[in-house]
Design goal:
With 430 residues, the chain is α/β, with parallel strands linked by helices. It is 40% helix and 22% strand.
Length: 430
């Protein structure tokens, strides 16, 4: 009924008028739903993590640090939902649920007497007012890179939506000093304190050293030119050094003891679908990751290459009904950095899967020898099976795009799916 009404209105009214009506409706609905549930978030200390990449891992790092410090927490991330230590997989196929579902989450967090709520604030949820009225004590900005331009149209519009969190005048702000959009977000003041992190010489939390290992990362950070922290995590990759440092900065602003910060960061053993290692007794590594943006793919490939002795086999595709222009860009990145590519289907939604692959392939072809190292296999299971079959000792099979998700949407149909589970099934058959 609702969708029929919306389609009818769109046929009658100009696009600008439709946008105004939709925006007004969403604001009103958010207020009414919030009132219906008693606005539970107003009783909570909410920490919002936003940005293009790294949100999920940063949320998980900070959640572990706060728990180590003795706080009771609630966490809402793309991969996991946790309240008072009780965690479950987020199977929404979306970061944020409906407005009502989010209010129910806040109500449960309040009932559990959570000291802090740590959660992702994606741009869609901000723009659609799903979290409107939620008081935010701290905003953490990881980075801003190309994504969601099918929705926001321009990077400037994308940034503007993210900036609405900062316009709420939060008590604390944490910013990535190395991000190219740093100056845009740095213009917003914090009520109490702002801290920046990164390798930039003017970072207040300076990343002095990053040492990468096959199954982890060590990071040296100096805060305010005097407080030195030696951090370690089981999560490999330089990008995870940044995610961890962002969480460390947040905890530091909240007054968490340094020993608890170090121990809490080390407690995070894995995040579903985020550089998730599939342990299957193979002589080669198998890693599943959510990377679905050019920046995300580039960073995950760099991380994989840094810990791989021989070849990186990449199984990847692109999502349908999303920013089409990023597909050839991702193809170029894959062709430059992967040793062998298995181009396959991901989630096509309502698009033709073959057309999606062709757009990715056009980028692969732009790179010299890109086509020669690429095998196109439409069936994702077959593509994964082929990569596993060809991998040998010292190689890494990197499977990207789906991450933690438990189903795919193909031609409008939900199909049960999880990359890590499929890997295990295939290896058990052999």
């Amino acid at each position: 009924m609702k969708q029929t009404l919306v389609r009818g209105v769109r046929k009658i009214l100009p696009a600008k008028s439709v946008h105004v009506l939709e925006d007004s409706y969403r604001k009103t609905r958010a207020r009414l739903v919030r009132t219906r549930y008693g606005n539970p978030a107003k009783h909570l200390r909410v920490i919002a993590v936003t940005g293009t990449n790294g949100k999920t891992t940063t949320v998980n790092f900070l959640n572990e640090i706060l728990k180590e410090a003795g706080y009771k927490t609630a966490m809402f991330s793309t991969a996991t939902i946790e309240i008072a230590g009780q965690a479950k997989r987020n199977d929404l196929n979306a970061t944020v649920a409906s407005t009502a579902a989010m209010q129910r989450f806040f109500r449960r967090a309040k009932k559990s007497r959570a000291d802090f709520v740590v959660m992702e604030f994606p741009s869609h949820a901000i723009h659609q007012h799903k979290l409107k009225g939620v008081p935010v004590e701290m905003v953490i900005m990881t980075n801003l890179t190309r994504d969601h331009l099918d929705y926001h149209k321009t990077m400037e519009a994308y940034a503007e939506v993210k900036s609405r969190l900062f316009a709420q005048n939060p008590k604390y702000i944490v910013l990535n000093r190395d991000d190219e959009w740093f100056d845009y977000f740095n213009k917003f003041p914090a009520q109490a304190q702002k801290i920046t992190y990164g390798e930039h010489p003017e970072s207040e939390a300076h990343i002095d050293r990053v040492k990468l290992f096959r199954k982890g990362t060590e990071v040296s950070v100096t805060i305010d030119h005097q407080t030195k922290l030696e951090l370690a995590t089981n999560l490999p990759g330089k990008f995870n050094a940044y995610n961890m440092t962002a969480a460390v900065c947040a905890a530091y602003l909240l007054g968490v003891k340094l020993d608890d910060i170090v121990e809490g960061a080390a407690n995070l053993e894995a995040v579903p679908g985020r550089f998730e290692r599939v342990e299957a007794g193979t002589p080669y590594d198998i890693i599943v990751d959510y990377a679905h943006t050019p920046d995300g793919l580039e960073k995950i490939l760099a991380a994989a290459k840094a810990i791989t002795k021989n070849c990186v086999f990449l199984v990847f595709g692109a999502t349908g009904d999303r920013d089409k222009d990023k597909r050839p860009i991702m193809g170029e990145i894959a062709a430059r950095q992967a040793d062998r590519i298995f181009l396959t289907d991901e989630e096509s939604y309502n698009e033709d899967p073959g057309a999606i692959r062709q757009m990715v392939y056009s980028g692969i072809e732009r790179v010299r020898s890109g086509a020669l190292k690429t095998t196109e296999i439409a069936d994702r299971r077959e593509a994964i099976a082929k990569a596993l079959q060809l991998a040998t000792k010292g190689d890494t099979v990197l499977i990207t795009g789906m991450g933690h998700e438990v189903y795919r949407i193909v031609k409008g149909e939900k199909i049960p799916w999880n990359d890590a589970a499929v890997v295990k099934e295939l290896l058990q058959k052999n």
